Amino acid sequence: MDPVFTEEQLNRMSREDMLSLLKIMQEHRQKQEETLQKQESRIQILEEKTKELEFLNAMLSDRLTLAQRKRFGASSEKYADGYTQLNLFNEAEQEADPNTPEPDLEEVHPSSYKRKKRSGKKEEDLSSFETTEVIEYKLTGADRYCPDCNTKYKVVTKETVKRLKFIPARFEVVEEVTFVYSCPKCGAMKRPEKAPSLLKGSVATPSLVAGIMNAKYVNGMPLARQEREFARYDLNLSTKTMANWIIQCADRYLQPLYDLMKEELLRSKYLHGDETRIQVIDEPDQKGSTQNWMWVYLTDEYSGSPQMVLFQYERTRAGYHPKEFLGDQFEGYFTCDGYQAYHSLPERITVTGCMAHARRRFDEALTVLKKDFTKEQLKETTAYQAMARIGILYKIEEMIRDKSPEERYKERQKQAKPLLEAFFEWLHTLEDSVDRSSLIGEAVLYTLNQEVYLKRYLEDGHLSIDNLAAERALKNFATGRRNWLFAKSIRGAQASATVYSITETAMLNGLKPYNYLTYVMGQMKDLGPFPEKEAMLELLPWSTSLPADCHSKLKK
Q: For the segment 195-235, what is each residue's pLDDT rounded down to a tens digit?
């Protein structure tokens, strides 16, 4: 290849021309290096895409094989030679060998570390429970005398051991007898004033309804299953009756507290939001397979407000629902996932993003590569590097977790901000190289699309890096939904939203849901149909006026 310039032409060039020529060559070389770097990134991503497709192909092939075997294969299972299927219900008997000698203690080598049992741990665990039975072991008769000298034994000490009994559900009948009086002279009649009943004409009491609510909304036990359990204890209580009790008590006694909690929630400057599916059968003009939605709004431990969770049932997932719920009162930060409906909130509401959602997408991209990549190869992938960068941001959050909002803000500016800026600069270099149809491409583009929202947690120490608080708030609801599958009526769905709000908020504030529900419904019953606001404020889950029995000693 002939040179661009001859030797004679180069000798005749001035110093300025030579500098211009060198500058042009330098720029050309820099462009070549940038092009090469992009090509290398594109090649790496294509390799990851190939592995991803191979993984998906193998997975789909396995699913097809299993489906064909299930449809056309033999119903009995075959095992490889030498493999014995263990009977789940006979494991101890099958594995036990009465002829096996006990181990020689001299040959047993204990591990180098043995956890030291804390002194008084058993007594501490049992301190919350009442001792209802005392069994004493004493010497009687001739055993009280020493066989050697015939002297009567003297008690020198007592050894006390405590054990814990469990008593299943027990029902007790409370009988109310009202004496009616008459004046023997003029015949005037008088009767004492009775305490109001929970529900007119019903055998329900606060403790019974609280037990039903606790079983369904805290422990995820459907009413039909509770009906069968009650029948085992000789109580005939139908699902329909229990549902009516829940709806009436939620509407009459719990909804006023819900409304007060909402007032407090909207005064906060820092909220989280999320939504999840629920199916309501009796929604008019919709198909049976149509999904309805349960929305959740909450304050977290950093918000500086009382911790609470509020559920709101809505027919659709439309963006106007959070606008209506937040109304004109809320003004501040709103942490959520990337759902577009939240990004159309009014300008007075600043939306912040969820780093966990971005991390999840990179984790999915990394998962499909684990089948064919070694650990060292995985470390070179884009997904792994992204996970590592996000992991450092979470490590910083872990270290500043117990600091004040002001201290968290300063540490984030000092430590997290440079790392987050570098992370997004790196993602921008990959933007033109990734395949949008691949998992890694989706992860990169999703994260870049959410860049503005994902950076906002740096602005204020009260903010969280993610929206996991909202996901945790929905966990009990999701567990219950897997059991009861759907809500029958709109009123039932609304009642569920109210009860979930009360029970989840109670647990966030360290309360026992059953005890708290029993206390609240009993107090609201006695306050009458038009309770004073000041009296209801003392019943809120964060009130310092709640009895000690409502508080849990254990933090779970």
A: 899 999 899 999 999 999 999 999 999 999 999 999 998 99
d(CA 474, CA 83): 43
Angle at 231 between CA 230 and CA 236, to 5 degrees: 90
Identity at 405, one-letter amino acid code:
P
The answer to whether 299 touches 306, Cβ cutoff 8 Å, is yes
Q: How many CA atoms lie within 13 A of 51 on its CB side?
A: 20
Closest CA to 52 of 444, 374, 439: 439
User: pLDDT per residue over 36-85, tens digit each?
Assistant: 777 777 777 776 667 666 656 655 654 565 455 445 554 443 333 333 33
Cβ neighbourhood burial of 180 (10 Å; 0-12, 13-18, 19+): exposed
Provide the CA 365 distance to its chain's centre, in angstroms: 24
Six token digits for residue 487 = 């809500």
Query: For 61, how many CA atoms within 13 A lie in the half-sphere containing its CB?
Result: 6
φ/ψ of 487, rounded to 5, equals: -105, 140
HSE toward the beta carbon, residue 152, CA cutoff 13 A:
4
Q: Which of 297, 276, 277 is nearest to 289 (CA)?
A: 277
d(CA 42, CA 50): 12
Q: Where are the beta strands (DSSP E) in 102-255?
A: 181-182, 189-190
Cβ contacts of 228 within 8 Å, gap of 6 or more = none
Q: What global pTM score does this model have?
A: 0.76
Q: Give yes or no for residue 467 having a pLDDT over 80.
A: yes
CA–chain centroid gap for 471, Å, is 5
Contact criterion met (CB below 8 Å) for 465 and 393: yes
d(Cα 309, Cα 175) in Å, to the nearest integer? 38
Alpha carbons 152 and 155: distance in angstroms, whole number: 10
For 548, the token pair is: 């000690």
